[in-house]
Specification:
Elements (H helix, E strand, L loop, with lengths): L7 H9 L2 H16 L2 E2 L7 H5 L7 E5 L24 H14 L10 H6 L1 E5 L4 E2 L11 H15 L4 E5 L1 H4 L11 E5 L16 H11 L11
Parallel strand pairs: 2-3, 2-5, 5-6
Antiparallel strand pairs: 1-4
Length: 222
């Protein structure tokens, strides 16, 4: 694996050398060799490559990658340029417009947010084509739970944005005395009206960052 840079290699070294991670790698070698797996193996750790550790201001937790062709590229909720917007991302854009008045962009690539300091981390990092949650039992939860703990321990005044039951189950991993946790329903069409719409997590994130003398995030993708 190529170095991640941005301070991540040193932070995550104990995980990458752990026997549990080595089992994940063996599983993935077989899966990528025999099936269509998303994202591309070269995009697998993009969330770390796009957002250096010392620039992490917020963490958005997704569940597993999009499982249809051309969508997943290693950033949760994000799709490549030119790919139609998934329903959850459309709802995220609607909430941003309601919260901040930002016009909805046509592009679903969220890499600008990643460059702004938003770590876009899925709790499961890979998936089989057309099979949602197909890699959810392969060990990724162990890995990403530890990533969340390490971020909590090694950063200050970070905003953890948790949408939906899977993400909200990670609250115990976060030191609430030194970070802000924002949680609500998932933005999917099945649950967005149960508390996602109107959550104002984007403006609340920036209010917290400014209160702690951090540069707010530019959520505008236009």
């Amino acid at each position: 694996m190529k170095p991640l840079g941005g301070g991540w290699d040193e932070l995550l070294a104990p995980l990458f050398t752990d026997e549990k991670y080595l089992k994940i790698r063996e599983f993935l070698k077989k899966e990528y060799g025999e099936r269509i797996i998303y994202p591309d193996m070269f995009d697998l750790y993009n969330c770390f490559r796009y957002t250096p550790l010392n620039n992490v201001k917020a963490v958005i937790l997704g569940q597993d990658p999009y499982h249809e062709p051309g969508q997943a590229h290693g950033l949760c909720f994000s799709v490549k340029k030119g790919v139609p917007l998934p329903p959850s991302l459309q709802n995220i854009y609607k909430e941003i417009k309601s919260d901040l008045g930002i016009t909805q962009p046509n592009c679903g690539d969220l890499s600008k947010w990643a460059n702004e300091g938003v770590l876009l981390l899925n709790t499961t990092l890979t998936v089989r084509e057309h099979q949602a949650n197909s890699h959810s039992k392969c060990g990724w939860a162990w890995f990403t739970d530890n990533v969340i703990k390490l971020i909590s321990q090694n950063t200050q005044n970070t905003v953890f944005i948790l949408w939906g039951g899977n993400a909200r189950s990670k609250v115990p991993l976060i030191e609430q005395s030194k970070h802000l946790i924002l949680q609500c329903a998932h933005p999917s069409p099945l649950s967005a009206f149960n508390g996602f719409f109107g959550c104002r997590h984007f403006s609340k994130t920036n209010e917290y960052l400014k209160a702690h003398r951090k540069q707010p995030i530019d959520w505008d993708l236009n």
